[in-house]
Amino acid sequence: MNNLSQEKSEYLLQHSTNPVEWYPWGDEAFKKAKKEDKPIFLSIGYSSCHWCHVMEKESFEDMETAEILNKNFVSIKVDREERPDIDSIYMASIQMISGSGGWPASIFMNAEGVPFYAGTYFPKFDKHNIPAFKSVLAKIIEIYQTNRISVDDHSKVVFEGLKNLFQNSQNKKSQINNLYSKITSQLKDSFDFEKGGFGDYPKFPETSKIEILYLLGKKNSSNEFYNMAQLSLGSMINGGIFDQLSGGFSRYSTDRDWKIPHFEKMLYDNALILNLLCISFKVTENENIKKTIYMTINYLLEEMKSEENLFYSTQDADSDGKEGEFYIWDYTEIKKNISSENFNIIKDYWNLTEEGDIDDKNILYVNQSIDEISKTKNISKTKVEKIIDDSKNQLIKIRNKKIKPNTDNKFITSWNALLISSLCNTYNVTGESKFLAQAVKSSESIMENFIENKNLYHTKNNKISFLEDYSYFTNALFDLYNSSQSSKWYNLAKNFCEDTISLFWSSKDKIFYDTVESNDLIIRPKGFFDPMIPNSAAIAAQNIYKLYRYSNDIKYLNIVGESMESVSGLIDKSPLDLPSWFKLYYLMEEDNSEIFISGNNNERFYKESLKFLLSSYLPNTIIVSEDPYDENFYLPIMEERLNDKKSKIYICKNYVCDLPIDNMKDLNEKIDNVKGAYKSK
Fold first, then answer.
1. Which of 579, 680, 585, 619 has the alpha carbon at shortest distance from 186?
2. Domain count of the chain?
């Protein structure tokens, strides 16, 4: 056992029996490096990372490699999911040094924590122009011992690069011009019009970019953008990236066609895709989208939910020592367990072949639609659907006998918050109260388990606060208010907005930092881009803009304006790289509405109108109503509109309201609703 044996992180515990003398991030490791004049080897990964497992087996469990590391380095292990701040700094250094990034992250740095060399996965032996890990170690040792000046020079260059990225913050301010034209051009240039998504391969969901397509479709009343979004979602739903049996989306596809996934399932991916599915259903009313919503939410509730009403972070790609083993199928195995009549159908539906897709085994993805099979086989759609459902149930029974992938049972506040928002949106489109109830339970669990001394923490194990937790949870609280119209959630959201400003906003730099002030990092990080999840600073600014909309308090608008100004140079140049900031721009620039529902919330019209509004795609509309359980609740839009005996709806722009509406016919005519208007090409 090494120094990780007392840690709580699943990832760190996986490495606690390695012969490498690992240390957790902390003073002890850095003091040892200084005292013994040794470089630090920093390895960053996470529990479900396939190549992290590979490097562990090849190198960190190898006695010879361990001896080299133990003799010449101080080795530190970091779980990137617990410490996204450390990960963001050192991933930036990897990209500066090597031109690319990924996990496991392998960083060589001096005793002050400044990198001088870095990469990702290093194999046991030279492979595909990647040097063997022991060769890398030998070279680092040689340079560190014989040419310290060169090491120091490299460290200085990297540190200056990090300062330029994170600290010399004032990006060039710019007048934002023709932003809609720019982002449309960039979207079309990078979009795959045949397979959906962006770029060639590997393909990631890139949910923030797809959401922009829906916003542009709304703005332009254009099926062109909706078609692009629907093609992307449809390809993902039909592809191997979606678990065709039990639901849930894998991290990414290794191929252009979305067929061959990297099998790990991340909570944040599924939360973000679920939200997109809800947006899609609001626009399209497509039944396949609705079915996928239920499959995704059922997967999350059955596989990822804990007794604490919180959701686990990840499910591993590997099982039984092999990537994807739980999800791939031998042709004869399926043929043996499915009746010949049914097999004849699912063979075409999922493109089952004796050759398979990887390692002579099949990945389940939709090759022919139910309509196509119905026509070619001359069988009714209903019968085809029943055959597929029956086959799914049989295969699930067989699969459940296999060794399941490991689940990392850590709870991450920000990722749970993303799911809370998606649970609210699921309630909005389905009307099923159980989803809103789960959102409430999960929020209460976060309040109970992750707040201490008025600080919201990232995980239970590490009492550290990050902007992403405050941003996403505040957004979730606003979503809870929107769905429930309970003032409790609005008041909490307002308080968290204030805390976000207090802890992370720099009035000097006019930007939100990713962390509170800290002494254990070489630099205080901040980010502008959406690498995997929406940019936390952009979400913070969106929250505060929302608070301005609710409260009409100009101080909030000023902060939003300053934060937008700080990224103006970047967004004007390349808006597609900053989709969450573009969304804020959209919210600020486009016509927005405030809707106030007065009167009795038990009245039929109140219930019908709220249900209609929640299920409509109204990305730039806020909804406010009286709270019968909170007499003191008041927002400016309520001015002179309280105490209506009968429920009425006031549709307002900039707090100037039209005549009240008291029936669904007039409400339908007045609301710019696109539900059901979209028709696929």
1. 579
2. 3
pLDDT grade for 463, boundaries at 50, 70 and 90: confident
Q: Tell me the pLDDT band of 327, cut-offs 50, 70 and 90.
A: very high
Mean pLDDT in the chain?
A: 94
**What is the pLDDT at residue 134?**
97
Residues 307/398, Cβ–Cβ less than 8 Å? no
Q: In the chain, what is the straight-line distance between the N-terminal and C-terminal CA atoms, in Å?
A: 60
Report how far residue 512's alpha carbon sits from residue 117's, in angstroms, rounded to the nearest whole number.
Answer: 29
| Segment 74-93 mean pLDDT | 96
Q: What is the pLDDT of residues 436-445, one digit of tens each?
A: 999 999 999 9
The helix or strand, by DSSP H or E, that contains position 602, with its residue range, turns out to be none
* CA 249, chain centre distance (Å): 12
Instruction: Confirm if 626 and 601 have CB atoms less than 8 A apart.
Output: yes
Whether residue 353 has pLDDT greater than 60: yes
CA-based torsion, 84, 492, 461, 417: positive or negative: negative
Q: Which amino acid, residue 666? A: D
Token reading at 379: 């069988």
128 by Cβ neighbours in 10 Å (0-12 / 13-18 / 19+) ranks as exposed
Interval 169-182: pLDDT, tens: 445 677 888 999 99
Task: Verify that 348 and 398 share a domain, yes or no.
Answer: yes
**Pair (203, 342) in one structural domain:** yes
- Mapped onto helix, strand or coil, the DSSP state of residue 595 is strand
What are the residues facing 262 on neighbouring strands? 252
- Tokens (6 digits) for 243: 């678990």
Look up the CATH number of the domain holding residue 51: 3.40.30.10
CB neighbour list of residue 450: distance below 8 Å, 6 or more residues apart: 411, 413, 456, 457, 458, 459, 460, 469
Structure confidence at residue 681 (pLDDT): 45
Position 417 pLDDT exceeds 70: yes
In a domain, 557, yes or no: no
Distance of CA 592 to the CA centre of its chain: 26
- Cα torsion 610, 612, 613, 616 to 10°: value is 160
Facing residues of 556 across strands?
A: none
Residue 671 inside a domain? The answer is: yes
Question: How many residues are listed for the chain in this entry?
Answer: 681
The CA–CA distances, whole Å, from 506 to 161, 427, 471, 503, 511 equal 21, 37, 15, 9, 6
Residues 284 and 366 both lie in one domain = yes
Within 10 A of 531 (CB to CB), how many other CB atoms are there?
Answer: 12
Which three-class secondary structure state does DSSP give residue 641?
Answer: coil
Strand partners, 108: 41, 117
Query: What per-residue confidence (pLDDT) applies to 678?
Result: 63
> How confident is the model over 623-676, as pLDDT tens digits?
999 998 998 999 998 887 776 778 899 999 877 888 999 999 999 988 876 554
Distance CA 641, CA 367 (A): 56
Omega within 30 of 0 (cis) for the link into 104: yes
Q: Which two tokens stand for residue 601?
A: 């919330």
Helix (H) or strand (E) holding 22, with range, is strand 22-24
Answer positive or negative: Cα dihedral of 425, 80, 412, 315.
Answer: positive
Structural domain boundaries enclosing 94: 10-166
What is the CB neighbour count within 10 angstroms for residue 424?
A: 28
